């Protein structure tokens, strides 16, 4: 393998490699002790072979009837790239002429164990489930093909793309077709982006197929009646089959053999595709965010100098990074976050914040490009009249609420509907606001619960992408169609109101998720994470087994009834399916050992490349709160390096549970997170603000946690201002019990309830001003130590 010069856009450098392809020969020899699926006879067995890295290619042996010891001795050939993870799937089926064929045996085998030029014989067994065995031989040989140019971030690989241009000239067949049913020519190229394309005869048509260059595939074509859907002739000799590899960089013309329809000609030309990579492969921050950080640090430096009464100006590398980490909680989270941001603005501390991350309800309201002409202000983020009609709000500045009548949703709806994520860049172009970050989870649509498979997907005004794969696209291209990292079809950017349905959608919960939430406690969740961690420690991803037998269980049944029951449990009533911008990309040979991947790899499917997201045509995105009610993953992307986190928790019953789950999850992932150890008194009577840190781990940020509590607010109208007897009623905010107006299911508030929750959230931050300032001073010291050159005196 030859390493070429790095490339890619700034902030997303990828590596270019030149690597040869190899010819893999797989000889299926024999099987033993196959179980019988029928009472009256032994198995009628055949074997299916497929490699997910060789799209469109699936081989099948002949069927051997009535035997538990079939001997096939059949060889099959794959052209493979050694720099991607090649896992061969071998499946033995029992053929049935009446019902669906039963699967007897399935095994996954990592081809990296096969050494070039050496014949390897493997016996796969189904132990401990059964006694079935399968004998297979493998041989890897060099090819004379030129090396393939790969683009990779060491987790994903974009391979070379080729284009096949097809020009159909059927004008000469018009007179023949006129007296018959109208005929169509269907062209199929398995493994290509287009797969199948159809054109009517009697016209001149042009097609283009995009496919992987190193693919031993063929173009097939046949004629059919457009009205009766019957193929023109049953003889395979009348169908067109053209191998593509001999056509590279050539142009050929050929006739389509068709009964009674002469004069149909095809002109074919195959060549390398010039499409540039449109998916950014890299784990570092994009260039736009890096530029924003530089601009925002200037704003933060001025705000810190004023807030902390500093004597001198801060240099850019001395400015601490502060992030807000908000949980979900429906309209309660939206309203409370508004109050928290308002309080920070009043204290002159909002300009000290660089990142604002949220999930679910805390993503429902963000300001426009200019919150006020003089500087950031959040007081016009929303109005009470909007609360009975909840909608995602991203609006231009409105007059203060006390100076005008309340605006109804009808007045704002056109603005709301027109807002896009990329449009929020205007609010960041001078570093005037914190960078908003939104989180979602990509899950399996209908066959697994969220705890068993989930992948973090981050949305920002600059890019949308997967933390685990290091793959991102600009928000303008989210929802467009991609293949092998190239943009195939651009679709208009989705609007914010559409994205809100992804970030906060209670209906994407499946029954298994709901059952887990109803029947388990926080301790059960902690045990789940611990079990996952132990499993990964015992079987680390870096030592992926070369043979993985898929276990049969009640979640992976074979009968139609069981499959239907499984679908009932794991189906999601409403979820967002978006085109997968990772489709066609492949996993690198060493993807499991890459730190960027292993940090977020926490499920068994991570060791099975064919089961991961690049193999899926669509993304299934759901509310991230179904796993942990936290937006912490965004805080730990390389390059952000936060020194202080302001944690806003909007739970009504467990003020520390989500934070403790976050700590446990981060530590299992090797992420530096402070110790969250509230005292028994803190659990019984939580305060407005709690400080958590870990002196033993200097990389861990300081954390100020703000639970949603009514502690001193019930006795104080403002920090240090005792309520009069007439004002005591205004301090009563019902945050507990079935009668609370702030329950998650309640999406509309009375104006009085809205104002009280707003004032409570505002007060809780303002009364914690001293703790915030002290945390900022400590973060400033930590940042100074990080910026200090090695060996310099303190």
Automatic annotation (TrEMBL):
Keywords: Calcium, Cytoplasm, Hydrolase, Lipid degradation, Lipid metabolism, Membrane, Metal-binding. Pfam families: C2 (PF00168), cPLA2_C2 (PF18695), PLA2_B (PF01735). Residues 5-124 form the C2 domain. One of its GO terms (cellular component) is cytosol. CDD domains: C2_cPLA2. It is a peripheral membrane protein. Residues 272-794 form the PLA2c domain. GO terms for biological process: glycerophospholipid catabolic process. InterPro entries: Acyl_Trfase/lysoPLipase, C2_cPLA2, C2_dom, C2_domain_sf, cPLA2_C2, LysoPLipase_cat_dom. Its main location: cytoplasm. It is an enzyme of class 3 (hydrolase). It is found in: Cytoplasm, Cytosol; Membrane. Its EC number is 3.1.1.4. The N-terminal C2 domain associates with lipid membranes upon calcium binding. This is Phospholipase A2. It comes from Colobus angolensis palliatus.
């Amino acid at each position: 393998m030859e390493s070429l010069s790095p490339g890619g856009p700034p902030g997303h450098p990828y590596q270019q490699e030149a690597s040869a392809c190899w010819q893999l020969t797989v000889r299926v020899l024999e099987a033993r002790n196959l179980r019988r699926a029928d009472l009256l006879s032994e198995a009628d067995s055949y074997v299916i072979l497929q490699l997910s890295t060789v799209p469109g290619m699936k081989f099948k042996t002949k069927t051997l009837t009535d035997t538990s010891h079939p001997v096939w001795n059949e060889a099959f050939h794959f052209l493979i790239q050694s720099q991607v993870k090649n896992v061969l799937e071998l499946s033995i089926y029992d053929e049935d002429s009446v019902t669906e064929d039963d699967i007897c045996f399935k095994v996954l085998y990592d081809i990296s164990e096969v050494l070039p030029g050496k014949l390897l014989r493997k016996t796969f067994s189904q132990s401990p489930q059964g006694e079935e065995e399968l004998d297979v031989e493998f041989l890897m040989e060099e090819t004379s093909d030129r090396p393939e140019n790969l683009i990779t971030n060491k987790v994903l690989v974009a391979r070379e793309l080729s284009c096949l241009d097809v020009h159909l000239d059927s004008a000469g067949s018009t007179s023949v077709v006129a007296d018959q049913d109208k005929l169509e020519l269907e062209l199929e190229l398995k493994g290509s982006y287009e797969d199948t394309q159809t054109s009517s005869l009697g016209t001149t048509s042009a097609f283009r197929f995009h496919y992987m260059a190193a693919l031993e595939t063929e173009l097939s074509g046949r004629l059919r009646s457009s009205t009766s859907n019957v193929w023109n002739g049953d003889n395979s000799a009348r169908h067109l089959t053209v191998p593509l590899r001999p056509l590279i960089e050539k142009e050929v013309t050929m006739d389509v053999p068709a009964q009674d329809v002469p004069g149909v000609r095809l002109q074919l030309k195959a060549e390398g595709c010039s499409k540039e990579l449109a998916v950014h492969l890299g784990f570092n921050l994009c260039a736009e965010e890096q530029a924003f950080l530089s601009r925002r640090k200037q704003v933060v430096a001025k705000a810190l100098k004023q807030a902390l009464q500093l004597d001198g100006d801060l240099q850019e590398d001395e400015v601490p990074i502060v992030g807000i980490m908000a949980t979900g909680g429906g309209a309660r989270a939206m309203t409370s976050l508004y109050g928290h941001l308002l309080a920070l603005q009043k204290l002159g501390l909002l300009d000290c914040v660089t990142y604002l991350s949220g999930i679910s309800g805390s993503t429902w309201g963000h300001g426009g490009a200019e919150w006020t002409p003089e500087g950031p202000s959040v007081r016009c983020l929303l109005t009470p009249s909007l609360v009975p009609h909840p909608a995602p709000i991203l609006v231009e500045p409105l007059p203060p609420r006390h100076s005008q009548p309340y605006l109804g949703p009808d007045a704002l709806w056109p603005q709301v509907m027109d807002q896009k994520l990329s449009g929020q860049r205007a609010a960041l172009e001078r570093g005037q606001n914190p960078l908003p970050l939104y989180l979602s989870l990509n899950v399996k649509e209908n066959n697994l619960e969220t705890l068993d498979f989930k992948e973090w997907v981050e949305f920002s005004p600059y890019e949308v992408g997967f933390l685990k794969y290091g793959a991102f696209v600009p928000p303008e291209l989210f929802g467009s169609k991609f293949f092998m990292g190239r943009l195939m079809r651009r679709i208009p950017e989705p609007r914010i109101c559409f994205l809100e349905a992804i970030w906060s959608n209670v209906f994407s919960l499946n029954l298994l998720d709901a059952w887990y939430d109803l029947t388990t406690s926080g301790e059960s969740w902690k045990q789940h994470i611990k079990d996952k961690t132990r499993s990964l420690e015992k079987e680390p991803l870096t030592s992926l087994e070369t043979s993985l037998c898929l276990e049969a269980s009640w979640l992976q049944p074979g009968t139609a009834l069981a499959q239907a029951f499984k679908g009932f449990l794991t189906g999601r009533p409403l979820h967002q399916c978006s085109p997968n911008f990772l489709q066609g990309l492949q996993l690198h040979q060493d993807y499991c050992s890459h730190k960027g991947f292993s940090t977020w790899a926490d499920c068994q499917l991570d060791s099975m490349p064919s089961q991961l997201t690049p193999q899926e045509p669509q993304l299934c995105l759901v509310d991230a709160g179904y796993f942990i009610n936290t937006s912490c993953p965004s805080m730990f992307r390389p390059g952000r390096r936060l020194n202080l986190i302001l944690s806003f928790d909007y739970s009504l019953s467990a003020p520390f549970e989500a934070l403790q789950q976050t700590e446990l999850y981060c530590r299992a992932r090797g992420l530096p997170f402070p110790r969250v150890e509230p005292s028994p008194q803190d659990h019984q009577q939580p305060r407005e603000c709690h400080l958590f840190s870990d002196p033993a781990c200097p990389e861990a940020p300081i954390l100020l946690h703000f639970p949603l509590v009514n502690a001193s607010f019930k006795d104080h109208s403002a920090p240090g201002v005792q309520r009069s007897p007439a004002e005591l009623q205004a301090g009563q905010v019902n945050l507990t019990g079935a009668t609370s107006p702030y329950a998650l299911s309640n999406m509309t508030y009375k104006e009085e309830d809205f104002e009280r929750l707003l004032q409570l959230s505002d007060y809780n931050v303002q009364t914690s001003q001293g703790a915030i300032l002290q945390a900022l001073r400590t973060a400033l010291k930590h940042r100074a130590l990080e910026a200090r050159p090695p060996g310099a005196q303190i």
